Amino acid sequence: MTKRLNLFAFICITILLAGCWNHRELTDIGIIAAVGIDYGQDKRYNMTFQFVNPKNIAGNQQTSGLSGPAITIYESEGDNLLEAARAASQHVSRQLYFAHTDVLMIGEEVARDGLTDILDIPIRNPDFRSTATIVIAKDSTAEQILKTLTPLDQIPANTIDKTLQFSESRWGEDIHLTVGELVPTIYSKSKQAVVSGFVLKGDKEKGKQDANIQSSRPLAPLNADGIGIFKGDKLITWAEGKTARGINWILNNIQSTVMAVDWKDKKDAFGITINLSKSKVSANVKNNKPHITVHIDAEGGITEADTFLDLSKAEELIKVQNALRKEIKKEIENSIQFAQKHKADVFGFGEKISHVDEDYWKKVEDVWNEEIFPNLEVKVEVNAFIRRTYLISKPFLYEHKGND
Amino acid sequence: MGLVSKLFAKPKKKKKKNQPATKDTSGQASDISSRFLNTDLSKNLQTILNTTGNSADIIIRQIDLADEPPIKAALVMVDGLIDDKTVNETIIHTLLTEYSLQEAVSIEKSFDYLEKKLLPITNVTSVYEWNDLFGKLLSGETIILIDGVEKALSTSTRGGEKRAVTESHNEVSLRGPKEAFTESMRTNTSLIRSRIKNPNLWIESFQIGKVTKTDINVMYMKGIANDKIVKEVRRRLKRIEIDQIPDSGFIEQLIEEKTYTIFPTVFHTERPDIVVANLMEGKIAIIVNGSPFVLTVPALFIEFFQAADDYYARFDISTGIRFLRVLNFFISIVAPATYVAVTTYHQEMIPTLLIIAIAAQREAVPFPAYVEALLMETTFEILREAGVRLPKSVGQAVSIVGALVIGQAAIQAGIVSPAMVIVVSITAIANFATPSFSMAISSRVIRFGLMTLAAVMGFYGIITGLMMMTLHLCSLRSFGVPYMEPLAPLMIKNMGDTIIRIPLWKMKSRPKLISQKNIIRQGDNQQPRPPEDNGS
């Protein structure tokens, strides 16, 4: 009997020991959607927290009375990030809760000085998810971008996250990168990091006011814009437009995009939707000289034809196909040149070399970005295929207009 | 044990004093001076009157069988227990009109004459002892006493008021037989007997209840049921010493393996078709007179999730429904606990938009999630309990008040969040979907335990609780058969009737651990197929 009593007592004690130590009610936590990091006074860190106001998210019936913005911004300063985050308790009535943080936004100034100080806490802290998207506030501070209210997705963090996601998969000029994906590349000698940028356009002051979402045309829209090229942990330059897409081609980030192909005299006569793309980078080292071959397989369909060409004939299609192939090849070669100019191997060519010939890599790894990569011979092979022309084959409208 | 005996240590002395008195509670008339009947009719009648305290429902009808030599006789019966028609038209009529003097001239002969030749009654027996006589008299038989004979005739004239066989109220099924057991044991055994026309259906009779002498029948299929289990049932029934058995629930509690468990280890049903199916699996049915609920043992955990419909509907549908039922049981024990754990510990596990929605609802709620959950669950239990006891006419009022209180008002007053109401409703509905009430009720108890564990330890607590529950389930036995069979110990052959229900022709064997020897239910090649396939 005493044995049983003892056992019972033990069980009770273990329950008390667990003692609700990480118990927190929903009303005691402030859900943070995005975190921004900038410099404050004297290069101290200034953190911006985008709190969600659950009551003000439309769709909840409880909102009947007061309604305010969907988010609330709090800022706080500190010598390191932890200090800055904890210092927020002085003016935030809730525990900061990072598990639902989708976006880590870094001011351009901070990014140019280096990310090392910033990236430790997001991967060390169990609350913060390494799946949060990392974004750089291009030409501005993170604070400014996070303060902006957005209309379609009420939580601006969602707007940033989803914009990147869709523009990466539907357009191809941006990169949706998570903190966890960024960290391993930040000090890698064989691959340099790339991070997407976000820019605030229009009236920056109006962006934080209700007016921004009350107006049919947002006064200060948020835009995904370009890919930041890193060297080590420092941002060095921005790749924009087609150059950015070229990088994505090689990094195998393109799921779907659209290509414009010139035909005879007409610029951009064909609009081609690429919906299958695969890149393969192979490397070899011959006579102490590295060679890289980039092979791209792209498949798509003609979605727009603004000139007359009988697309029902295979030989005509093959001509378009060749034009497409050249277009893609040009784009890729351009972005390789761009990267070589800035001496940043964002494609991970060094990584491939290290897999093929480790001894050679050991010798060159310290000078790779500075000396070898800028002069690297890269062969680009593109295999483009037009699978379909969608609902109509002959562009009959142009048949009557004449072939111009 | 130690603690209990210590607690009861003091009153021991009293117990001893009471002992002689307790012996008396057997209810037997203590003032009968002799064990056997007297030869003198008037003395016998006097004894009967004295013993029964001249009760109003004892009828004594004295008749003269013959005048020369005078043969006096008396009929003793209990009003209300006998079938009036049989007594009037058969016994009294026969005795008065057809008694033939040629056959029985002397008193001695007349007794044999009555027993062997005269009475057109199914069952006529001689009674020598008073105990025997009262037992028969009070169970509705008519006793015939003859002056000068030191024994009596007992004729089966049981009758009286019985409830007709009606539809089952508690175990409704869409398909399958509708009739349910009644309070009359004989009706109940006949309902089973009529479904199994096999001499191997054996019935053993017991009388339990020192005072009430309640009739109890134990039914089993000789050759299918395990003899050891039959013996064990007999042993457990015989050792019951209690004054009364008002319902089979008493027997259940007195024979179950373990009292301190929330899981039922004896199955009860009011449907004869379920009892028949159980008998065919080698189980043993215990029928208690006065109770429309028949017990079957040994009971398995999974049995409480099997409804009669499962076997009457086609197997694919039954399998789906069986899945759903086990899921329902699971939901009904963990749903509120999960809500508590997720909203107080694991907010990171819910999709962002959902947590924002829940957070918005909880913003104005003044209680912690656990208190909120406890409040709602308790309110619901109160409503349910109120609903069970109320007369039908008032029951509707309760449901209206309940719907308003739990549903509308509580949310509008900001005391609970709509999400909590959804959780409570899902839990309640899932709970109602368990076919067996005794299992449903135990899941209600577990739910509160898990909620507390979740409030203290989050998911870790829930998992700990579920593990403890599983361990406990695995440790249970019902009449020696592991409660979790065939899940633990794992019996692949018997898995076909657990969370899935395989086609009937595939269920070749009976539960192995119950019957043990005769486990083949049917032969091979039972699959229906077109004729040209024959033999291939």
**Secondary structure tally, helices of chain B:** 19
Q: Could you give the order of strands across the largest sheet of chain B?
A: 1-2-4-5-3
Beta-strand level of the residues of chain A, as a percent range? 25-35%
Number of domains of chain A: 2
Strand content of chain B: 5-15%
- Give the % helix of chain A: 25-40%
What is the approximate shape of chain B?
elongated
Percent helix range of chain B:
40-55%
Structure overview:
The complex is a heterodimer of chains A (404) and B (536). Chain A has 404 residues and is of the alpha/beta class. Chain A folds into two domains: 26-239, no CATH class; 241-404, GMP Synthetase, Chain A, domain 3 (2-Layer Sandwich). Chain A is 33% helix and 30% strand. Chain A has helices spanning 2-18, 81-87, 108-113, 116-124, 142-146, 156-170, 179-186, 211-214, 241-250, 314-341, 349-356, 358-364, 368-372, 396-401; strands spanning 29-39, 45-52, 71-78, 95-97, 103-107, 133-137, 194-200, 222-231, 234-239, 257-263, 266-286, 289-305, 377-388. In chain A, strands 1, 2, 3, 4, 5, 6, 7, 8 and 9 form a nine-stranded mixed beta sheet that branches. Chain A has a four-stranded mixed beta sheet with strand order 10-11-12-13. In chain A, a hairpin with a 2-residue loop joins strand 10 (257-263) and strand 11 (266-286). The longest helix of chain A has 28 residues, at 314-341. The N and C termini of chain B lie far apart (65 Å). Residues 1-30 of chain B have low confidence and may be disordered. Chain B is of the alpha+beta class. Chain B has a five-stranded antiparallel beta sheet with strand order 1-2-4-5-3, with helices on both faces. In chain B, strands 6-7-9-10-8 form a five-stranded antiparallel beta sheet, with helices on both faces. In chain B, helix 12 crosses helix 14 (369-389), helix 14 (369-389) runs antiparallel to helix 15 (392-412) and helix 17 packs antiparallel against helix 18 (459-475). Chain B contains 19 helices and twelve strands. Chain B folds into three domains: 41-155, no CATH class; 185-299, no CATH class; 312-482, no CATH class. Chain A binds chain B through residues 1, 15, 18-20, 22-27, 29, 31, 33, 52, 54-55, 57, 59-60, 62-63, 97, 99-100, 102, 127, 129, 158, and chain B through 1-3, 343-345, 347-348, 352, 355-365, 368-369, 453, 455-458, 460-461.
